[in-house]
Write a structure and sequence with these properties.
The complex is a heterotrimer. In chain A, about 45% of the residues lie in helices and about 15% in strands. Chain A is of the alpha+beta class. Chain A has 3 domains: about 90 residues, Helix Hairpins (Orthogonal Bundle); about 140 residues, Cupredoxins -  blue copper proteins (Immunoglobulin-like, Sandwich), CATH 2.60.40; about 110 residues, Cytochrome Bc1 Complex, Chain D, domain 2, CATH 1.10.760. Chain A has a 5-stranded mixed beta sheet. In chain A, strands 4-10-9 form a 3-stranded mixed beta sheet. The termini of chain A are far apart. In chain C, about 70% of the residues lie in helices and about 0% in strands. The chains are: A alpha+beta, B mainly alpha, C mainly alpha. Chains B and C meet through helix 1, helix 7 and helix 8 of B and helix 1 of C.
């Protein structure tokens, strides 16, 4: 018969031995990569300890009572039913404990809210269902979309290590710099969050709200949209790559170069085959989420493009629909999100894919002209 | 009171047996019948919304999409929330109020028996609107039970029907509250002062005031959603000069007190049960009344703690953080008083007491995670994650729902005249407690690790805890079938219950025979 | 059956509560307009 002490010792050894296994199980906040995240981590540990302490005292008392003050153990009921002194004590002590927690918490609130003196600013825009980043100091602008392939989600391919937490174009920032984020949305409320950096802010259409972070160490930090925003709410992650200053400068130059190349495209003409090939990529990245890869949409929810009047009727109406969307529905205005070339490509693709065989081709210049005319002017790029 | 005089002259049925069959239930104005209707309705809705939860957990068993598409998943989570809150917890507590308040006060019935009938019967109408919307084009509402615009403006016809259902359920609650307040204020037996009435009546009185003070605000908020959706208004549309965050302020001004509406009656039930099984009076009755009132008053000034990530100024974060932390004080007082009631009592552990004890312990865990969330900087990391899901399921499942189970086991013998099967009751208890903790405790870790809410698929590091939670969900879910069996049997037959039923039970309802007669206290009892 | 009882002010209580509820509803809508 093992004694209680021996049993506790065995349990302790078993627990220690299981640590490598338990390490797969995350029990606390993510490892902080910024001072703010560290402050929050510490604050949470403090509160947990206080709660644990109170829990042990209160429920230790209760379980003791359940054991000792039971009828089957012969205990007879006392008759007291009030005690003002005791009541005052257990009102005042919790109040004092709360004040002890409130003070360090208030300091962190004030620190988190202070967005002054940033080293750089990035405008973040939430879309259904991707993020857009505009580096306000440098004019670089791009979208950041989930890059996990569909077949991994549907189970016909093995899931990669960063399943659902990977994007085509991460936000890149230099280490140790105070980055201010100006956060808004294009359609519904989203929320931008990177746990390791301790930064979260709701993205509200029509309003800009700012936060800041300063990453302590080089690394890749991943987060997700954290406000229900429709069907692909779970599929619009955030990736922040924190790099050295030198690497950041290199990345910035590359981005500026790519932007120039893309703008140059808009003054070219393309043949139909080029447009269709490019358009299919644009369709997959921007349209297929709702209209599906086969162009059939979702009955009652998203209209089909295959065989639709818009995609087989007058091309101007088709272009206007893509540019300006359909207000009051889920069809967003893509004029602000896609370049003239990309819109020309996707319109051309839609008009010649599946059962649609219009033989049409749209050129970037047509799109540029359509932007100036008819409906409301397209909103600015992210 | 001249109802009886009128009834004599015009109404043949007044002195004869009530109509039988379906007509009895459709036209009843009897508080016991209506109480039973509310409770059966809540039970059916429990299994309905519970099935949705099992579907949700089945989808979340592994990463990847196996059973649902993302849009249908959002419908499930939204409907699960709406039905559990408005179709299960609130009607169940109304059922308890209807059965118990007149009996505890020595009143013959509720103040307005006919309005009582209407208050119940519009609920199934709302239920049909909600459940039926699954079949409409676009499916059921999928914007979260919190209905935030602009997302809520995008949805199809079922969103408008949901708004209508919310109006109907709100009207039901308001009518019920008017009835309860009036009954408690105007129809107590002579000698029964407010500070002598059972705490259950106090908690319902305060709950009813909260309902009257907040349901109209919800009605206003969803009406604005309706007009933004259909009549070109821009309450919540920035392009038209409106503000989506204004909806959140208005909604949470309702919804924070709403969560106290969902728990105060539970406090009342537990405060009835623990003294009975400890064979000792409730400790600190007056403090319990003041604590409940303080919680209710404070609940009006904390709403924006649901909005800490919206981008409010630091001063607002601080105000709402401090006011929210303050609510822990009266809540703590109540917990201490329950423990003090048990202390040096002579306890036995029949099923009602088991659920009441589990309530005190597990609700407190929910309270602690609430305190963690109250700390605004920590909330920034936990808002909209599974930590919040863990928190509110601890307070709503092991809080509100367990108190409902406790109350049923406690009072059913008085209502039906038969004792329930104690062995089955204990099985139900243990499986529920163990199952519930297996589902929801891991969710604290998921939230801390960074898993967002309302997602149908997740990154690989969240797999293990999701699997544990799903296993727990099926244990918990199927255990409720035991409860169904217990209730169905005890409603019809079994060992006969005595009048007092429980050795330590005190209160007017225990002076009546079991089952309580159809009409009781037609002459008011004298209370010393 | 309700016993014929003395007047107990229940209609007054009920009307006050109902007026409050309706007023609050309208006030909410009005505040949204500002």
């Amino acid at each position: 018969m093992t004694s209680i002490r021996q049993r506790v010792g065995i349990a302790g050894a078993a627990w220690a031995a299981s640590q490598p296994v338990l390490a797969e199980y995350a029990y606390n906040l993510q490892v902080p990569a910024s001072k703010v995240a560290q402050d929050v981590f510490d604050l949470h540990n403090l509160i947990m300890l206080v709660c644990l302490g109170i829990f042990i005292v209160v429920f230790g008392t209760m379980f003791y009572s359940l054991l000792k003050h039971r009828k089957s153990a012969g205990h007879k009921a006392a008759h007291f039913h009030e005690n003002t002194t005791v009541e005052v004590i257990w009102t005042v002590i919790p109040f004092v404990i709360l004040m002890g927690m409130a003070y360090p918490a208030a300091k962190v609130v004030i620190d988190m809210k202070d967005t002054s003196n940033p080293d750089m600013s990035i405008k973040v825009t939430g879309y259904q269902w991707k993020w857009g980043y505009t580096y306000l100091n440098d004019g670089v602008s791009f979208y950041s979309t989930l890059s996990t392939p569909r077949d991994q989600i549907e189970g016909s391919a093995a899931k990669s290590e960063n399943y659902l937490l990977e994007v085509d174009e991460p936000m890149v920032v230099p280490v140790g710099k105070r980055v201010r984020l100006l956060i808004t949305a294009n359609d519904v409320i989203h929320s931008w969050w990177v746990p390791a950096l301790g930064a979260k802010q709701d993205a509200i259409p029509g309003f800009i709200r700012d936060i800041w972070f300063k990453a302590d160490k080089v690394g890749t930090y991943r987060g997700q949209c954290v406000e229900l925003c429709g069907k692909d709410h779970g599929f619009m992650p955030i990736v922040v790559e924190v790099v050295s200053e030198a690497d950041y400068k290199i990345w910035l130059e590359k981005k500026k170069g790519a932007a120039t190349a893309s703008a140059a495209d808009d003054s070219k003409t393309f043949d139909q085959a080029e447009l269709i090939a490019r358009g299919e990529k644009v369709y997959t990245a921007n349209c297929a989420a709702c209209h599906q890869a086969n162009g059939m949409g979702l009955p009652g929810v998203f209209l089909p493009i295959n065989g639709s009047k818009v995609a087989t009727g007058p091309i101007d109406e088709h272009i206007r629909t893509v540019l300006n969307g359909r207000p009051g529905t889920a069809m967003a205005a893509f004029g602000g999100q896609l370049s003239d070339t990309d819109i020309a490509a996707v319109v051309t693709y839609q008009r010649n894919a599946w059962d649609n065989k219009t033989g049409d081709a749209a050129q970037p210049a047509q799109i540029a002209a359509a932007r100036g005319g008819a409906e409301a002017a397209a909103p600015a790029a992210p | 009171m001249t109802d009886a005089a009128h009834a004599h002259g015009h109404d043949d049925h007044s002195h004869h047996a009530p109509p039988a069959g379906v007509m009895r239930w459709l036209t009843t104005t009897n508080h016991k019948d209506i109480g039973s209707l509310y409770l059966w309705f809540a039970l059916i809705m429990l299994f309905t919304a519970g099935s949705m939860a099992l579907l949700i957990r089945a989808e979340l068993f592994q990463p990847g999409l196996q059973l649902t598409n993302p849009d249908f998943f959002n419908q499930l989570t939204t409907m699960h929330g709406l039905i559990m809150i408005f179709g299960v917890i609130m009607p169940a507590f109304s059922g308890f109020a209807n059965w118990q308040v007149p009996l505890m006060l020595g009143a013959p019935d509720m103040a307005f028996p006919r309005m009582n009938n209407w208050a119940f019967w519009i609920l199934p109408v709302a239920g049909v609107l909600l459940m039926g919307s699954f079949l409409l084009p676009g499916g059921a509402v999928a914007g979260g039970w919190t209905m935030y615009p602009p997302l809520f403006i995008q949805g199809g016809i079922s969103y408008d029907l949901t708004i209508l259902a919310v109006h109907i359920m709100g009207l039901s609650s308001i009518m019920g509250s008017i009835n309860i307040i009036t009954t408690i204020l105007n129809m107590r037996a002579p000698g029964l002062t407010l500070m002598k009435m059972p705490l259950f009546c106090w908690t319902w009185l305060i709950t009813a005031y909260l309902l009257i003070a907040t349901m109209p605000v919800l009605a206003g908020a969803v009406t604005m959603l309706l007009t933004d959706r259909n009549f070109g208004t821009s309450f919540f549309n920035a392009a038209g000069g409106g503000d989506p965050v204004m909806f959140q302020h208005i909604f949470w001004f309702f919804a924070h007190p709403e969560v106290y509406i969902l728990i105060l009656p539970a406090f009342g039930i537990v405060s009835s049960i623990i003294p009975t099984f400890a064979r000792k009076p409730l400790f600190g009755y007056a403090s319990m009344v003041y604590a409940t009132a303080s919680i209710a008053i404070l609940s009006f000034i904390v709403w924006a703690h649901h909005m800490f990530a919206v981008g409010m100024p630091a001063a607002a974060q601080l105000f709402f953080m401090f006011s929210t932390m303050l609510i822990a004080v009266p809540t703590g007082v109540k917990v201490f008083n329950w423990v003090a009631t048990m202390w040096k009592g002579s306890m036995t552990f029949e099923t009602p007491m088991l659920f009441a004890i589990a309530f005190v312990c597990l609700f407190t865990i929910g309270g602690f995670s609430g305190l963690v969330l109250a700390i605004a900087p920590v909330d920034i990391q936990l808002h909209d994650t599974y930590y919040v899901v863990a928190h509110f399921h601890y307070v709503l499942v092991s809080g509100a729902l367990f108190s409902i189970f406790a109350g049923i086991y406690y009072w059913l013998p008085k209502w039906s005249g038969y004792m329930y099967d104690e062995t089955l009751g204990k099985w139900h208890f243990w499986l529920s407690v163990i199952g519930m903790n297996i589902v929801f405790f891991p969710m604290h870790f998921l939230g801390l690790a960074g898993m967002p809410r309302r997602i149908p698929d997740y990154a690989l590091q969240f797999t293990e805890f999701n699997q544990i939670a799903t296993v727990g969900a099926f244990i918990f879910g199927f255990s409720q079938l035991i409860f169904l069996v217990v209730v169905l049997r005890a409603a019809k037959g079994g060992v006969k219950a005595t009048d007092r039923v429980w050795e330590g039970a005190e209160g007017l309802e225990w002076t009546l025979p079991s089952p309580a007669p159809y009409h009781t206290f037609e002459t008011a009892p004298v209370v010393k | 059956m309700m016993a014929a009882g003395k007047p107990n002010g229940k209609y007054r209580t009920a009307i006050l509560l109902a007026v409050w509820a309706l007023g609050l509803f309208i006030f909410t809508l009005y505040s949204g307009l500002k």
